[in-house]
Structure formats: structure tokens, C-alpha cells
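Researcher: We're reviewing a set of sequences before deciding which ones to prioritize for further study. For each one, I'd like a predicted 3D structure that I can look through quickly. This is DUF7779 domain-containing protein. If possible, include the structure in C-alpha cell form so it fits the rest of the review sheet.
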Amino acid sequence: YLALLLRGQSWSITEFMRLYLKNPKRLHKTELQAVWDYPFATLEKDSRTLLGIVSFLVPDNIIPSLFEITEDDNLLEDLEFCTDEFSFTDAVEPLLTLALIKRDRDNRALSCHRMVQTQFRFFLPMEERQKVFDNAVSLVYHASPKQSDATNKNQFYQQWNQCNRCLQHVLCLKDNFKEERRLAKTFKASLLFCELLKDCQRYLYEMNALRELEDVCEVNLLAVETLDDKEQAVDIMASTLSHQESMFESTGKVQQAIELNTKGYHMRLEEKLLKGGLLGGFEQNLAYNYNTANQHDTALTWFEKSRNTSTDWNVKEGRKADWPAVTKKNTARCLVYLGRYDEAHELLETSIREFKQEKALNWAMLAYTYFVLGILERRKGRPEAAEANFMEAQNMWFKGDQTRLHPFNAGCVYKTGAVCLDQSKVEAAVKHLRDSLEITKFHSDVMPVEHARGLFKLSEALIQDSNESEEARDLRDEAEVFLLRRDPQAVAFGKEEDYDQWVPIFWR
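Model: Here's the predicted structure for DUF7779 domain-containing protein, in C-alpha cell form for your review sheet.
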């Protein structure tokens, strides 16, 4: 049929795809509709539900485990066929017979052509489209790791692999929700959808996937407006503001981060049932912000508030009167910048001990802790010890992140190069600094100052090699260009701190 359509309209394949992508709904509702209406209309309830779910997911490699649920999972009634292998097979087979989906022989993963997905969504009445979208959300949410104060301290570092398996489906659901809302303002988000996006936001922040994070946050703020329960909406909104501020802080917009964090913090304070753990988290986030803004005394005030809030909350919940290891580690970093080295060292040693006592290796928090130890040792004039800690931070980071493109990894490599230069190990310094630039150039459009400081430090290293003085001058000029992208008013370019002052506190 499609071949006849192309011939009848005298379209080339390129022309057809251009028109299709420009307005798929028109073609699906007219020329292509007849191709699909009959097979769609013959589907039984479970097959129809399954194809509807698949039509909202990533078209390729839909893993079978996504549909592996039990009766105890309390999912939507429409998904009951997924609890029984024979019923699920009965739902799949008609779709395979009609070539509406395909199944890989080896891994049993499903796939569905984008045209089939789009046509089936347009085929469904609005009410049914809403239901199958909610079904898809329910399955992906069930398969995804959840933020939990009890199991993972509201972090996902130890579950990156599981998060990554679901990520593309979450992003696809996000894009489809945007499109459905564009077509019909009656299309609504469920609480599960907002929770799913909230968890995705945390994972994207940890990965430093900032462009995706920005879009997910924007969609979630739109989605919560459709929730009937306004208390739940406020809860999701406050969390989303927190993730937005983290994104702004990472990209050098620290004043915007402070504004968003303050707004979210006051939203938490106005909740009927105060959540001490979340309040303490907002106070800690504000402390981060002020550290990045170089207001370290103010930052310490917020860390102290966070410590008191978390301790009181633990007592109220019947737990030990203590405060989180992550807050101890971050308070120690603040104390380093205030020159209170002995207090900082004690807190860092306590943090390392507590992180190592956790059931699963908390590789990210340990990496950040060793990084702070490196900064402390360098400030105390012990470059050998600093080098060892920066290398230990990087080694620990590699236990969880194999991509090696994260700015924290770049920070570890940069600092290792810097302390090598402190020790006049010029060749080693040049190697490490060049390696760090390979990472920072990947992010230089949104994180120019990290790249600038690497260029500057490499120029310093090369100046010590008289054969490389011309490259050193070029690198220094390039460093100034990148610093001016962050601070157009900059006039000082000759010291490490001229660049460091703009770097987010996490990898400064």
C-alpha cells in the first residue's frame, strides 16, 4: 500500500519521509489509516493493551523482563496478563502473526516499527490512549530503581546499571507525554509518571546528563500541574526544583541555583507533615550552593542546620542520634576552605569509615571523600599525599563509572596533574593535564571554566619545558577565551584560583 501511495502522489521516499516527519498525524489519519485499521480492529483485549504499551516505549530492544510481574505487585488490572506466561504468550502471538511487532530469537526482546507505534496511538480513542500510557508508565516504574532513604540514601550511584536499562524508555515516555499534551490538554499525568521522572532526574544528575535533565525537569513541572492531589504535586515540584538547581550549579549559574533551592526549601517547610530527611537535604544543597559561590561561612551555617535537622529527624524516627556520612563529608570540605584542617580531617576519616560499613560499596561517595582529602593534603603542603588521594578518588570512581567522561573524573585527573607539577614532575603533569582536557573539551560548551583551568595549568607545565613555550602561549590564550565565557568581566588570568573560583565545589 505504501508503494502505491508513493507512486500515486509522485513522491520520492525522501519527500515522503520529509512530509511524514513534518505532520505524521495527517498522513496516519488519511492515507495510511486504511493499511492499519483492519489488523488493529481484530486484536483481542490483551494484545491490544500490549501493543498500546509498546507504542509508547522505545521501538527497539524492549527487554522481556519489563513485563515480568507477579500478582503481588499490585499493578493496574489491565496488566494481569503479564503475571502469567501463557497469557502473555497469547497476547504476543497475534501481534507477531500480523507483523505488528518482532521478537528476537536469542534474547526474546520485542521491537515495533515507529510507523506502527504512531499509527496505533492515533487509532486509539483518547480515553484508551490515556489508559495504555498509564499502563506503560506502571511497567517501567515497576522495573526502575526507586529513591529510598532506607536503601540508597536517595542516591542511585549503586544502581546505575539498572537505571540505564530503563532510561531510554523513561525518556520516550517523557517525549510522548509532551506530544499527547500538545494534541489534547485533557491528557493527564499519573502520580507514578511524575515519580518516575523524579527518579530519572536524580540519575541524570548523577551522570551529568544535563541537557536531558533540563528537559525532564521541565516536563515534570508541566506534568504535576495535571495531578488532582495538590499535596503530591507540591512534593514532586519541590524535588524537581532541587534537581534543577543542581543542574544550574553544575553549569556555573549558582545564583539561580540558590533561588530555586530557597523556593523548594520553603515549599518543604509549608508541608503539613514535615519530612526531616528532605528538609535536611535542602539545607545541605543550599550549603553546596554557597560553597560554590565562595561564601563558605554562610555554607557552614547551612551545613550545621542540615546536621541538626537530620539528627532530630533520626531521633524522631527512632534511630540513632546521628547525621548522614555524606553531610559529614561535605561539611569537611567546607571546613577545608575555611582553613579548619584538623576538624575537616577528623570528619573525612569518619565519613570514609561509615561509607565502607555500608552493605554495598558506595563508590561515588568514597571517591568524593578521597578527592576532598587530596585538596586538604595539598593545602597542608603535602603534594605526595594529595597525589595519592586524587588517584584513589579516581580509582574508586572507576568502580562504578566506566564511561570516564564525567567532570568529576576530569577533576581527579586535573588535580593529579596539578600536584605532580607542584612536585616538579613535569612530564607526569603534562600527561595528566592533557588527559583531563580530553574529558573537559567534551563538556566545554556548558562547562567552559573546567576546560579553561586545564588549559591554563597545562600552559604552566609546558612553560617549564623551553621547547614547548609556543604551545604554552597558545594554551594560555585559549584558557582566557574559555574563562571569559563564564565571566565576561574577568581581568585576572594568571593564577590557578582565577579559574578555580568558578568551578562547582564538587570537583573544584
